Amino acid sequence: MAYLIRPFRDDDAEGLPHVWREAILRVGSLKYSPEQVQAWLRWQATPEKFRSRVGEGATILVAVDGEDRAVAYALLERDGHLDHLYNHPDHTRQGLAAHLLGEAEVLARSRGVTRLYSEASDLARPAFERAGYVMTHKREFEIGGVPIHNWAMEKPL
To answer: Nearest Cα to 43, choosing from 83, 80, 71?
Structure first.
């Protein structure tokens, strides 16, 4: 299947919550407990949250299928923080994470950003490592009283 990566459009806000939720439910559950998955889902990705993030200056890169449906995305903040990298489970193992990370890097460089950084899940960590990010430390925290973790990672540009 052919994919295209393009900038976020307002109508993408309706599909991205589905990508986010399915990724957490179906892929997140491979490495995280049911309690951790439910805690993660409490963030409640909504169309309004995606629109708000763009309004605040974040850039969302969207991978779409041949019918222009969002299947993966990355959310990059102006300071180089890659806050989201999610891939719908029906479209994994297609190189989308690598392409999104590459596009985010090109965009960050064009803006004069000198470092990309993120907090990667156990599932996303290998994609970040393949893209040249280095793990700096494990982040242990709680969401609604449920212990969970991710990995602080960075890449100098």
So the answer is: 83
- Alpha-carbon gap, residue 16 to 21, rounded angstroms: 9
Instruction: Check residue 9 and give its pLDDT.
Output: 97
Strands (E), 54-94: 59-64, 70-76, 81-87
Ranges of residues in the chain whose predicted pLDDT is under 70: none
Q: Confirm if 108 and 151 have CB atoms less than 8 A apart.
A: no
| Helix (H/G/I), strand (E/B), else coil: 142 | strand
Query: Which residue's entry shows tokens 């470092």?
Result: 115
Question: What global pTM score does this model have?
Answer: 0.95
Query: How many Cβ atoms are within 10 Å of 111's Cβ, its own excluded?
Result: 12
Q: Which residue has the tokens 């995280």?
A: 32
Tell me the torsion sign for CA atoms 66, 16, 83, 142. negative
Q: Is 40 exposed, middle or buried (0-12, 13-18, 19+ CB in 10 A)?
A: buried
Q: According to the model, what pLDDT value does residue 43 have?
A: 82
The Cα 33–Cα 60 span in angstroms is 28
